[in-house]
Amino acid sequence: MVRRTGVAALALLTVLAASAAAPARADGDGGCVPEFRADTGRGAARVLDIVADAPDEAAADRALAEQACLVRVGGTAGTATTGPVAVAAPDVYWIATVAGKDRWVAVTDWDFTTVPPPYAMTGAQGVVTWFSRPVTPITRVVHHSGLTSQYPNVSSEDTEFEGPYGVSFLIEPESSATDTNVATGRSALVFQGTGACGDLTARGAFAHTWSSTDITALTVPSAAGPSVSWTSTANRTLVNGPSTTVSGVCG
C-alpha cells in the first residue's frame, strides 16, 4: 500500500497553486501532455497499476505526474484497521479541466493484515469510495489480488452501486491456506464536482464478512456513508478509512 508523506503533498500543492490548476493540454502551448487519459476506464486502471508498482508514495506521484499530468491535492495520512482489514485515506489527484470543469481521481487502498483461513470467508466483500457532498462520477475501476502469484490481479468496472455520493463494488472471495484474492487492492473513482465551489472529503470503506454471512446490497445513499444489507447480524464489520479533504471542488 502506498503511504503519504506530508513533504511530498506540500510540494505538489505548491506546484498546483503556482500553475493555477492549468489543465493538461496537448496543443503545443507548453502545457503538460499526458501519455494517457486518466479519466477513461483504461486510464484509471493504468493509474492503479502505476500506484501498485511504485516503491513508495513519492515515486508514485512522480510517475503519475510524468505520465498522466496528475497532481496530488489535499489529504491527510493514515489508515483505519478493524479485524484483519486496513483501509487508507484516499489519494486524490487533479487530472485536468474538461469542458470548464475540473476532474479528479480518488484512489482508495485496502490490505488484509492477516489472511483468513480458507473456510472463514465465503460471503461477498465490499469496497466503497464515498464523499461528503454530491459529485458526478465519470469512470471507476477496482483491482484486487492475493499476496502471492496464486491469485493474480483482477480488474473490474462492474459496480454494485453508483450514485452522487459514491460507488461500491462487491467481490466474491477465493481463499487458500496461505492467500486470498482480496488480500490487497485499490479502486479508482474519477469524478467532477457539482454545485458551488467548496471543500469535499473523500473516504474509503471495506465491508468484510466471514463464516456464512453475506452482503446482499451495498449502497451510498447520502453523505453519511455506506449502507450495507447483511444476511446476518454476526460475522461482519464495516471499516471506514480516514478522510481526505480537497479544496476548491466546483460544479
What does this structure look like?
It is a single chain. With 251 residues, the protein is α+β, with helices and mostly antiparallel strands. It has helices at residues 6-19, 41-53, 57-68; strands at 71-72, 79-82, 85-88, 91-98, 101-112, 125-131, 135-145, 154-156, 161-163, 166-171, 184-193, 198-209, 215-222, 225-230, 236-240, 244-249. Strands 1, 2, 3, 4, 5, 7, 8 and 11 form an 8-stranded antiparallel beta sheet that branches. β7 (135-145) and β8 (154-156) form a beta hairpin. The relative contact order is 0.20. Residues 1-30 have low confidence and may be disordered.
Write the layout of secondary structure elements.
Elements lengths: L5 H14 L21 H13 L3 H12 L2 E2 L6 E4 L2 E4 L2 E8 L2 E12 L12 E7 L3 E11 L8 E3 L4 E3 L2 E6 L12 E10 L4 E12 L5 E8 L2 E6 L5 E5 L3 E6 L2
Antiparallel strand pairs: 1-4, 2-3, 3-5, 4-5, 5-11, 6-10, 6-12, 7-8, 7-11, 9-10, 12-15, 12-16, 13-14
Query: Would you report the number of β strands?
Result: 16
Uncertain stretches? 1-30
Largest sheet: 8 strands, antiparallel
> Could you tell me the strand content as a percent range?
35-45%
Short description:
Helices cover 16% and strands 43% of the residues. It has 251 residues and is α+β, with helices and mostly antiparallel strands.
